[in-house]
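re: the backbone from monday

yeah here it is again, tokenized this time
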């Protein structure tokens, strides 16, 4: 039975309406309060945030790359400075793909770019990370730069920059000293997320001193504010915060000497180090041939990178610190000091007949006829192998190795480079640990003439010469950041040092092997020791038919040529170490004695040294830049032009390049093959009158 509907009264209707009205009013009130609260939050708490967003729509903020600190020599002359540069880049992320052909065509018209340049830009855009600037053109005239700026609203993704770029006035002559700068890689940006790294025109140190001194050289960026329309068109420039330039770094290098030594090495693959023996300051630090750091900083082409990598003279290698060589006869003065320190008389003689029998082996001197009876001085003068074979055989090389270490061989020096190789000063404990073998008499004979397991870099050879000259434990330094540290006297009898210096004087001035190094400067004399180091095994068949001369061999099989010296003998001021890879003493005016003589002459009589170089350089094909241009042109003529239209934006640092690793591995293999045989001592040092 259904219940009849409840009658609706006026009071009930009024109550229901009032309740619903209150609910709606409450909801409306809550919404109003929420809106009011939100408006208050936006107006008060978030005021600064939205003010900045609003400002960013009206104002563009652009970072200004800081001017990089200069690198100067000991006299304040620029080794690396900054030049004013107008450049244009493209930021891939800001350039729509559909707009790329039009933008490139317009840039080609505005800047007069050749077709191959446009091809290079297209390839670089494809390969670049989205944020990486792709170089369009640099070193623009103000008129061309202004032409791009005027049309900027039509050029999305194009970033014209007026700033500074790195410049190396001496180019190749300082490449391995300074290194170079370049655009940051994608990995470097991802690691730090530093916006400065993706600012067009900004570059960081990639190798050498530029990389090691990056925190001091970089400086602090500035910022430029400009007012723009909604379409990005410039309205007016607002205030600019200037950048703070990096700090100037002063080196111990003499820039004039550095460039002269690089030029005097000529067409050789080699290095030269000059040290001030009063302080340990490195005056010249040269490795040649080398790359042009200006090209690397601007963005080296794929073709140029390949050309440098293929060069058998390995221009990417810093030979001063990365090259390890058997020091050859340059260690004989050092060996003489070890003999004297262990009680051997300087007047004790050994008769050289040209060969020495030890057990079943015969070990030869470079002079097949022999030198006759020699004391220590004459043995160093004539670079007699038999004298040092016999004396070191009697003494044992374990008594020589400590003197070698005292004079700097095998020593690690605190220099701002991460690519040093330190060589080896062997002894019986070292061989037992490394090869699990006992030291043998042939090992001592090899080491006595600077072969076998003995290895050194050119800097160490220069340090050895400087310590003999000064009698103090000089430590080389490159950064002139205060007075030079005081070096302690060597634990060597001064009379013994005087005996060795006299012998090295005789090498040059009394008929020894270094006669071509004699100075032609009144009142000044040079003391030196020549050296030759074998780099190949000589077969028994070749010995039977006659050992081939260096001139008859391919470049890579020729002996290394070495030279250490100091001057003036009367009051030593400078010492030098010179190494020519596979020099082989084949060309007189490109050999070590003449190079050493002229480098020291530059320090004592600059005009005479420059006059000599002016006569010699044309015979080598001109100066460094001229020869490099000729080599590039010859290489390009053999390679398809298509390989040139690409930039190596993320090229490996030269000192870490695969070509350097390959050259190092080959040298290590050669040294190991020779060290594990008695052949170097059996053949002799190949020393000849220089």
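seq for it, each position gets an aa:
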């Amino acid at each position: 039975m259904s219940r009849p509907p409840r009658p609706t009264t006026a009071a009930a209707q009024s109550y229901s309406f009032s309740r619903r009205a209150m609910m709606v009013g409450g909801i409306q009130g809550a919404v109003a309060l929420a809106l009011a609260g939100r408006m208050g939050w936006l107006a008060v708490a978030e005021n600064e945030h939205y003010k900045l967003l609003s400002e960013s729509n009206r104002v563009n903020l652009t970072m200004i790359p800081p001017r990089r600190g200069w690198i100067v020599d000991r006299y304040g002359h620029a080794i690396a400075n900054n030049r004013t540069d107008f450049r244009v880049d493209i930021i891939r992320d800001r350039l729509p793909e559909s707009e790329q052909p039009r933008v490139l065509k317009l840039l080609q018209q505005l800047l007069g770019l050749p077709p191959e340049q446009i091809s290079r830009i297209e390839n670089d855009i494809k390969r670049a990370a989205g944020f990486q600037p792709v170089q369009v053109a640099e070193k623009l005239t103000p008129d061309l730069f202004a032409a791009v700026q005027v049309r900027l609203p039509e050029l999305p993704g194009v970033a014209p920059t007026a700033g500074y770029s790195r410049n190396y006035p001496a180019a190749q002559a300082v490449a391995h000293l300074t290194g170079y700068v370049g655009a940051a890689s994608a990995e470097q940006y991802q690691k730090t997320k530093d916006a400065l790294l993706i600012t067009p025109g900004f570059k960081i140190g990639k190798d050498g001193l530029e990389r090691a001194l990056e925190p001091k050289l970089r400086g602090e960026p500035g910022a430029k504010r400009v007012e723009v329309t909604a379409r990005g068109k410039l309205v007016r420039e607002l205030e600019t915060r200037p950048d703070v330039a990096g700090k100037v770094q002063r080196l111990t290098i003499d820039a004039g000497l550095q460039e002269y030594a690089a030029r005097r090495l000529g067409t050789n693959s080699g290095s030269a180090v000059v040290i001030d023996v009063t302080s340990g300051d490195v005056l010249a630090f040269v490795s040649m041939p080398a790359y042009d750091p200006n090209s690397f900083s601007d963005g080296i082409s794929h073709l140029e990178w390949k050309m440098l990598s293929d060069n058998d003279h390995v221009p990417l290698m810093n030979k001063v610190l990365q090259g390890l060589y058997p020091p050859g006869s340059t260690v004989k003065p050092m060996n003489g000091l070890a003999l004297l320190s262990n009680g051997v008389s300087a007047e004790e003689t050994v008769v050289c007949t040209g060969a020495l029998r030890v057990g079943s082996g015969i070990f030869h001197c470079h002079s097949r006829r022999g030198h006759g009876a020699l004391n220590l001085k004459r043995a160093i003068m004539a670079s007699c192998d038999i004298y040092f074979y016999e004396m070191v055989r009697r003494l044992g090389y374990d008594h020589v190795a400590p003197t070698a270490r005292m004079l700097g061989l095998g020593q690690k020096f605190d220099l701002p480079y991460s690519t040093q190789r330190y060589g080896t000063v062997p002894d019986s404990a070292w061989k037992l640990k490394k090869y699990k073998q006992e030291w043998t008499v042939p090992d001592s004979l090899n080491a006595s003439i600077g072969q076998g397991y003995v290895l050194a870099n050119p800097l160490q050879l220069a340090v050895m010469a400087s310590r003999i000259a000064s009698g103090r434990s000089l430590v080389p330094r490159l950064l002139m950041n205060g007075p030079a540290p005081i070096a302690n006297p060597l634990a060597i009898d001064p009379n013994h040092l005087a005996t060795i210096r006299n012998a090295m004087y005789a090498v040059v001035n009394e008929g020894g092997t270094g006669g071509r190094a004699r100075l032609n400067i009144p009142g000044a004399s040079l003391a030196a020791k020549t050296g030759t180091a074998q780099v190949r095994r000589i077969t028994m068949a070749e010995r039977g038919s006659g050992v081939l001369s260096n001139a008859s061999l391919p470049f890579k099989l020729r002996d290394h040529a070495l030279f250490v010296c100091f001057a003036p003998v009367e009051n030593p001021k400078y010492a030098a170490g010179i190494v020519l890879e596979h020099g082989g003493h084949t060309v007189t005016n490109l050999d070590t004695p003449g190079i050493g003589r002229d480098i020291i002459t530059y320090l004592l009589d600059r005009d005479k040294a420059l006059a000599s170089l002016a006569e010699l350089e044309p015979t080598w094909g001109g100066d460094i830049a001229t020869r490099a241009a000729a080599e590039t042109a010859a290489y390009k003529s053999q390679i398809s032009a298509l390989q040139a239209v690409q930039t190596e934006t993320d090229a490996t640092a030269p000192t870490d390049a695969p070509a350097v690793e390959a050259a190092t591995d080959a040298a290590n293999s050669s040294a190991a093959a020779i060290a594990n045989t008695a052949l170097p001592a059996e053949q002799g040092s190949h020393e000849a009158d220089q």
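The longest helix spans residues 10-45. The two ends are 137 Å apart (CA to CA).
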